């Protein structure tokens, strides 16, 4: 599939004309990032906007004790980055490829030049910022107020909404590798505490677990919540 056709499938760009997509094609550079590669650290941040053409990335921070906290996982068609005029809040984050990735970058100068002539792109980015802020606020409230099991359930439902695989059973599998440690990064707890909580959720038949895989029983979870 050529780059123009792929760009047209981006959530951010799917309403743009073919002529606009051709221009964006000329303005972006494409870079591969193998799985487990660190795409950005707070020290290596550079201004620009990044479009995920293929793969998934994890956005996280690290506290003084070395504990990681995962803010989000972004899949194909999503965007991250920051310029003077606009920020998606990723300047101070670590960004890691959790699958083999292809990332399109538009530099600060090219991005600012483009949005002057194509204001509809700015409107879509503002919508993404709004959605992401709601998600961050909800995550912060969950960390502050909810018991660990409920924080885990809330996180799993959100991931299922993003990456759930439809199937004929009552359980919906989350289509990303998800170890106990990786889930612990989402909910701000130790791996050991998450393991105990997951076993309890399995006994209650709210989830099923396998090797780096988790499926949720959405109907039963909705009854509980």
UniProtKB/TrEMBL annotation:
The keyword Transcription applies. Residues 12-132 form the Cyclic nucleotide-binding domain. Coiled coil: none annotated. SUPFAM superfamilies: cAMP-binding domain-like, Winged helix' DNA-binding domain. Keywords: Activator, DNA-binding, Transcription, Transcription regulation. The lineage of its organism: Bacteria, Bacillati, Bacillota, Bacilli, Bacillales. Residues 146-220 form the HTH crp-type domain. This is cAMP-binding protein. It comes from the Bacteria. Pfam families: cNMP_binding, HTH_Crp_2.
């Amino acid at each position: 599939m050529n780059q123009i056709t792929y760009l047209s499938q981006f959530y951010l760009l799917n309403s743009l004309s073919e002529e606009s997509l051709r221009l964006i094609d000329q303005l972006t550079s494409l870079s591969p990032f193998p799985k487990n590669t660190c795409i950005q650290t707070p020290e290596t941040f550079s201004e620009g906007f990044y479009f995920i053409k293929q793969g998934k990335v994890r956005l996280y921070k690290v506290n003084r004790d070395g504990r990681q906290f995962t803010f989000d996982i972004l899949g194909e068609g999503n965007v991250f980055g920051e310029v003077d005029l606009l920020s998606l809040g990723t300047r101070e984050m670590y960004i890691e490829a959790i699958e083999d990735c292809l990332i399109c970058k538009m530099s600060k100068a090219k991005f600012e030049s483009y949005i002057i002539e194509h204001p509809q792109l700015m409107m879509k980015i503002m919508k993404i910022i709004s959605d992401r802020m709601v998600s961050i606020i909800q995550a912060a409230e969950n960390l502050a107020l909810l018991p660990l099991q409920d924080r885990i359930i809330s996180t799993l439902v959100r991931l299922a909404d993003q990456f759930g695989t439809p199937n004929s059973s009552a359980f919906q599998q989350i289509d990303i590798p998800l170890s106990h440690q990786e889930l612990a990064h989402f909910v701000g707890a130790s791996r050991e505490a998450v393991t105990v909580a997951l076993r309890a959720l399995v006994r209650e038949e709210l989830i099923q677990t396998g090797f780096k895989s988790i499926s949720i029983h959405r109907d039963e979870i909705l009854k509980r919540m």
